[in-house]
Structure formats: C-alpha cells, structure tokens
Design brief:
CATH architecture of the largest domain: 2-Layer Sandwich
InterPro entries: Gfo/Idh/MocA-like_OxRdtase_N, Gfo/Idh/MocA_Oxidoreductases, GFO_IDH_MocA-like_dom, NAD(P)-bd_dom_sf
Protein name: Gfo/Idh/MocA family oxidoreductase
CATH topology of the largest domain: Dihydrodipicolinate Reductase, domain 2
Shape: globular
Number of domains: 2
Structural class: alpha/beta
GO molecular function: nucleotide binding
CATH superfamily of the largest domain: Dihydrodipicolinate Reductase, domain 2
Order of helices and strands: EHEHEHEHEHEHEHHHEHEEEEEEHHE
Helix content: 25-40%
Mean pLDDT: 97
Oligomer: single chain
Low-confidence stretches: none
Domain GFO/IDH/MocA-like oxidoreductase: 154-249
Domain Gfo/Idh/MocA-like oxidoreductase N-terminal: 3-122
Distance between the termini: 45 Å
Bound molecules: nicotinamide-adenine-dinucleotide
C-alpha cells in the first residue's frame, strides 16, 4: 500500500521535498496546506494526485495521512505540530524548530507522551562526509572546532526579520551547531557577540544581526567557535573544521578533507543527503524502526537550545550555561 503524505507550506523547500517524494514508489503526496487555499491548490496542481487546503484541520479531516512534512518558516510553527501530535501522525519538520525559545519544549512533551515518530531537516547529518568524519573521530582526541556560515542575506520578507526567522545563527548556522553536536558532543556553555547595523542600513525591512561569533564549551572539554555573517555580496563558505591529535578534518557541503601527518585526503559527497533523510523517515513510518533517523525532534531540541542561548547571550552580554 502507498504511503499517503501531506505537505504544509508551499515554498522552496516544500517543493524540493515534494519532488523527491513523488519520485518514490509506493509514496503519494495527496494533500497540501498553504497559507491560503489558492496557494495550496496551485502547489497541488503540480503534483499527480493532490488536493490543496487553506487550513491544516481541513486537510487532516479529509485524508487518512501516514505522515506530514512541515516546511514553514521558523515563525509559523506550533499549531501544525500540535495537530499531528493530537492525531498521532508522524511528521518531518524543517529546521529550525521555531524562532521562539519555549515553543519546542512544549511540543516535545506531547511528542514524547505519544512516542511519535519525528524527523528534523538537519540534512548535514546524512552527508557522506559527516558519516566519514564520525568514523575518523571515533579514533581521535578532539580539542577544538571552528565553524563558519559566511554569505549574503536571502531575500524574502521573513528571513531578514529577527522575530520571524530568529536571525542567521538560528535560521542558517543552526546546521553547523547541529553538526558540531553530532560529531563533537553536547554543548554546555555559550557566549555570543553580534554585529548589527550594516544590513539594516541597506534594507529598512531588515533587523537581523550582520555577523556574530559564538564561543561554545562542550561537555567532553572540546572548545569551539562558530562565526557567521550575512552581509557578503556573494556566498562564501560554510563548514566545520575539527582539530584533533591526528590532524584536522574540514567538513563542508562538498565533503570532508582529512589533514593528517602532512597529507591531505579529500572525500567528496556522492549521495544526496535529502534522499537519505527521506528514506530513513519513510522506513520509520512503514516499520516503526526509527534507528535510521539521525535527527529526531528530541535531538534537534538540543540544537535549538544552543542557538537560542546564543541570541540570549548576545543580547545580555553574559555567557549562558545550558
Ligand atoms: N534543510 C535545508 O537545507 C533547508 C533549505 C531551505 C529551507 N529550509 C527550511 O525550510 C523552511 C521553509 O523555507 P523555504 O525556503 O521553503 O521558505 P519559503 O518562504 O520559500 O516558503 C515558506 C512557505 O511557508 C508558507 N507559510 C508561511 N506561513 C504559513 C502558515 N501559517 N500556514 C501555512 N503555510 C505557511 C508560505 O506561504 C510559503 O509557502 C525554513 O524553516 C527553512 O529554514 C531548510
């Protein structure tokens, strides 16, 4: 029997996920909820057999869905997850969990009570390079990590608004925070300093910080900094460099470079991490076996706490212990 999937959100990433899903055998995207019914119907019309809805309750009442994909911006979370939890429907939600500090904790309680299958779109975890780095690091002693997300500010009305996106560290650099947690361990303390004023001068709609640098302590003693900027005229680079007793590892979108004893060996990413993320989630929905999911809501909540602590630290000027 085909799995029946509902999508919430009709933007860039809902489209990416819907295209991947419709290429699968025994998977159908049967329903879409948008911020308006018109947008949802336009999106649904591009799919083989889907209907569009303006309200999530209408979609969930009309279809017996096996799973839901939530692909809305950071400010538009809460009621979608609550509906899925109430009805016991597994969901894959795009990162970040929210632009608000407290909402994910409340949702997590419901997810745990229902033991609901969840997956969060931290796709770096599914990259071949991250997998290989994890194997290398199991044999090495870590001391330091340096993370980066250097680029420009995406357009669109929500990304550049702090109250809508949470700012670059929460919305984008969260991938690097999550990769740090996945590869190096849990974060226990966060101190952040942000620069403001350049982007907001260029664009009166913008109120997010231009740049920031965040110092992190990990429970195993590793120290890290993760820096980001969104004022560059063009994309620069994003990634995580990890320093160990056996040399340095550089993980990026392209793969992983291993610098050991004067040699550099590069391993390029070959598989599509979004496909692997989808396959792990669909396998869990079909079988109940969640072991292939690398980022559950519960795990992603810890990344959320770190990025929210960075905002809190930058605002207060104090280090935040988690
Ligand atoms: N994992 C990744 O690599 C990756 C890449 C891109 C985007 N994302 C994430 O996906 C999410 C969506 O990003 P996007 O680029 O698709 O944004 P987008 O602006 O292209 O689309 C957002 C969609 O959400 C809809 N929406 C907003 N409020 C809604 C509401 N209340 N009810 C129903 N629909 C609503 C909008 O109408 C729009 O269709 C973001 O959290 C972003 O961080 C993840």
């Amino acid at each position: 029997m085909s799995l029946k999937i509902g999508m919430i959100g009709t933007g860039w990433f809902a489209d990416m996920h819907a295209k991947l899903l419709t290429q699968q055998e025994a998977v159908e995207v049967v329903a879409v909820t948008g911020s308006t019914q018109e947008k949802a119907q336009q999106f649904a019309a591009k799919l083989p057999n889907a209907k569009g809805y303006g309200e999530v309750e209408q979609m969930l009442d009309a279809h017996q869905l096996d799973a839901v994909y939530i692909c809305t911006p950071p400010f538009a979370h809460g009621s979608f997850e609550e509906q899925c939890i109430k009805r016991g429907i597994p969901f894959l939600v795009e990162k970040p969990l929210s632009s608000e500090a407290d909402l994910p904790h409340k949702l997590l309680q419901g997810i745990q009570e229902k033991q609901l299958i969840t997956s969060v779109g931290y796709h770096f975890r599914y990259m071949d390079g991250a997998e290989r780095a994890k194997q290398f690091l199991a044999e090495r002693k870590l001391a330091l990590a340096l993370g980066y997300w250097m680029g420009g500010a995406p357009g669109g009305t929500w990304w550049r608004r702090q109250e809508r996106s949470g700012g670059q560290f929460v919305e984008q650099t969260t991938h690097i925070v999550d990769l740090l947690r996945y590869l190096a361990g849990e974060v226990t303390e966060v101190y952040a300093a942000f620069h403001e004023g350049i982007l907001s001068e260029q664009d009166p709609n913008a109120n997010v910080a231009d740049a920031g640098t965040v110092t992190l302590k990990l429970s195993n003693g590793t120290v890290a900094t993760i820096s980001n900027t969104c004022i560059l005229p063009a994309g620069d680079h994003a990634g995580l460099h990890i320093y160990t007793n056996a040399g340095k590892l550089e993980i990026s979108h392209g793969g992983v470079k291993d610098f050991t004893a004067g040699q550099i060996v590069e391993y390029l990413n070959k598989s599509n991490p979004y496909e692997k993320q989808m396959a792990a989630f669909l396998h869990a929905v079909r079988t109940g076996d969640t072991s292939r999911i690398r980022s559950s809501y519960e795990d992603a909540y810890q990344t959320h706490r770190v990025t929210m602590a960075a905002n809190q630290s930058a605002a207060s000027g104090h280090a935040i212990k988690l």
